[in-house]
Amino acid sequence: MEKHIQLVGILNIVYRGVLIVAAFLLLILGAWFGHFFETLLHWGSLDPYDVPPQVVLDIIPIVVFAIAVIMFIVSVVGIVAAMGVLKRKEWGRIIMLVVSFVNLLHIPIGTALGAYSIWVLMKDETIRVFNPTPRSQVTSPTV
After folding, report:
1. CA atoms within 13 A on the CB side of 44
2. Is the pLDDT of residue 36 over 80?
3. Which ranges of the chain would DSSP assign to H, the alpha helix?
């Protein structure tokens, strides 16, 4: 099970790192969204009647920005949790379980990674790795 735990930590760090890059790309896309339609209108590639209303063009960058910020925050939390999992910390396992449930919504890669992470982190053997029994609680046979 040790190799599965290690793999969960590493795969989540890599996946969340890719999502951080995607969040920054979304920020750039959101910033340039209005200029994109203006450029298409200027070049004549777009009929003025095909352009969405200005209200929609004003709201879309805000929505894209909000999605990018949420992606960034969840990704940073996921990386911190993965580092906790790699160090065999119980708080890392709990946070990684929460992040893994969020991953289930990211079809197809996030779903596969989330399901695998949940499977590994919920096994009894894994729980024992993260919560070792202290020596004072180990019962010794009475003589």
Report:
1. 0
2. no
3. 2-43, 54-86, 90-103, 109-122, 124-130
